[in-house]
Specification:
The protein has eight helices and nine strands. β8 and β9 form a beta hairpin. The protein binds the ligand COc1cccc(Cn2ccc3ccc(-c4cc(N)[nH]n4)cc32)c1.
Length: 238
């Protein structure tokens, strides 16, 4: 899968993708990430990318021309790609949308604005406008990295442990269970006995109960379409 990122801060993307799961996926050739500096698609000597908003108001707005020139440059190879604009006003990004992007797109262009946003006319050239949450970031780069990271984790072979992607919380419709590792006793804080029992059936049940308990407490909105068994466990918790 190929990601092409349009930004005025390429170093934000380049620094992050070298590490962790993404770094391994890049080294395996499962993923390719190309970053384009929008300033390279300007036509003035100052490489200007923003201007004052028509109609007045605080801050600056990013001009359409660099985005248009960059998008046309990418489209010149006539290969299919999904163009995604990051924005606080976009469609909410979820694990389900990450799965959809992974399944449907061989290549994605992630368009990152800055300042108070970008000229509305850029939206005529994109397929999706996506928000990663109900809060305002300083630009689209972090949102682009969230999308790249969560989509890459779903690509078969990317994690090296197929179970991880499948087991990831949200895939099952509720939050994750608690995790523990050595030491067994840290300043009197002990690992739950059941996890030391070796009884895999008991451990699986304990983990399911804990996951449902966590979900009921922090994200009851996720508790939809539960299986009869999960519903039974949930009722015991209430
Ligand atoms: C457009 O409305 C804005 C109003 C005030 C500031 C900003 C800053 N900003 C610029 C480009 C940009 C791209 C994405 C995001 C963003 C995405 C999510 N989920 N939160 N924030 C924020 C961005 C934008």
């Amino acid at each position: 899968m190929k990601f092409e990122v349009l930004t005025i801060f390429p170093e934000i993307i380049e620094c992050y993708i070298k590490h962790g799961v993404l770094g391994k996926a890049l080294n395996k050739g499962i993923v390719e990430v190309k970053v384009y500096n929008l300033r390279d698609f300007t036509s003035d000597k100052h490489k200007k990318v923003d201007d004052y908003p028509y109609g007045g108001g605080a801050g600056m707005v990013m001009q359409i021309e660099p985005f248009y020139n960059a998008i046309m440059h990418l489209k010149a190879d006539e290969k299919p790609r999904k163009l995604v604009l990051l924005s606080p006003q976009g469609r909410k990004f979820t694990q389900k949308l990450a799965q959809k992007f992974m399944e449907e797109s061989k290549a994605m262009v992630l368009i990152c604005g800055r300042y108070e946003g970008i000229d509305e006319r850029v939206k005529a050239f994109v397929d999706e406008e996506v928000s990663i949450g109900d809060y305002v970031l300083s630009g689209g780069e972090l949102a682009a990295l969230v999308i790249i990271d969560s989509v890459v984790r779903l690509i078969p072979g990317a994690l090296g442990d197929e179970l991880s992607a499948v087991e990831d919380s949200f895939m099952k419709g509720f939050l994750d269970y608690p995790h523990y590792t050595r030491p067994e006793d840290f300043k009197g804080m002990k690992v739950p006995e059941v996890l030391l029992s070796g009884d895999h059936k008991k451990i699986a049940l304990w983990r399911k109960r804990q996951a449902l308990k966590n979900t009921l407490k922090n994200r009851p909105d996720l508790l939809k379409n539960l299986s009869p068994e999960d519903m039974r466990i949930l009722k015991e918790l209430c």
